[in-house]
Predict the 3D structure of the following.
Amino acid sequence: MKYQAYPDYKDSGSQWLGSIPSQWIIFDGKRIFNKRSELALDEDEQLAASQKYGVIPQSLMMQLNDTKVMLALKGTSSFRHVDKNDFVISLRSFEGGIEHSDYKGCVSPAYTVLNASKIISPRFYRYLFKSNPFIAALQSTTDSLRDGKSITYEQFGAIPLVFPTTDEQENIANFLDHETTKIDTLIEKQQQLIKLLKEKRQAVISHAVTKGLNPNAPMRDSGVEWLGEVPEHWEIPKIGHCAFVTKLTGFEYTNLW
């Protein structure tokens, strides 16, 4: 894939970003996103954060995973409010779990909710937060990752982030939507092809071991439902006529002869 170069680049001053287009601005995360401290509203639905689906209602999470999710039994008064297009630092944040929300609701106080303090394209930052270089930058902020410790707002807020113009953020997000959709479609087609090839592989094996390799061989009914017709010259002995069980202390095995 070829990308058109910008006229000029500059050193971002950040190791994870490297060189960036000269007109782009760099802000620390805390200058683009605030930590939302607003408590849950009475009408807020309980949300769940996942790396696969982002921030979605618990009820939808149960449907998608065909499972039950623990709901808050003592109410959600201590939960944090989430607005649409907020981001949530999840419990698996060091693996890239900074999740975008398309929904209004509330999340457990164990999560940190981020809301933009500047006008942004949420889709642009959704892609940025899932990029491998940013995830590596997240992981470099703490030494406690092996303990499963979440990234704090202070750690997130210290990471430099790019801030193109809002129009350019939208253009980049539109491009990525288009390209990733094409790639996802290709992946789906390849997965379907792989499935068909696996079925063909099994069919080839099954036919060879039950019908033989000669397509012109005379056939006869085997008298066995799962075998169907077999080559006329094949014998159909019972397993007991061509195998015996050898017993040893503690285990047994079968010999075929």
About this structure: The mean pLDDT is 87. Residues 219-256 form one domain.
